[in-house]
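note to self — DONT lose this again. spent like an hour looking for the file last time. sequence + predicted structure for the chain T wanted, 178 res
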Amino acid sequence: MKELFLIVHSLCTGFYTTLKHVFRGPATELYPEYKRPLPARSRARIILTADPDGRERCVACYLCSAACPVDCISMQAAENPEGRRYAAWFRINFGRCIYCGLCEEACPTAAIQLTPSFEHADRDILKMVAEKHDLQVDHCGKDQNYNFYDHAGVADAIRPKGGHVNESPPVNVRTNMP
């Protein structure tokens, strides 16, 4: 008699649990229709930002490609007639990128920035390779007023030596002689 009571109790408990979950809403979210809000510091697609004056920020210093643990960034440096360095070509293989953000941390000019946009999957791995024109944007990204050439102390056609932010004019060492 006790065994029969335990069997009926177990069956009723099972049916009660099933009935309780039948009238609940779904626990899953339909991804393309509902996009969960991401944290503000989430990292995904890489962009190449521009200076506040609209020119290219990247100086092709190779620090991002050296910092990349999966070796997915490659570029070729060049210099324009004003003496300003730029990347003649810049390429990121998003098929290999692990979105670690080390390239963004290594960039001295704040040219490389990671955005929260993560929807760029493709079945063809060759379509995951992004060229420079695919990555460039016409805004400054997170640092709206930062201009590397204002702080670098590198003389160019626009700013001579000593003409940068917080930089003293060059000293003639011959005036220090006794």
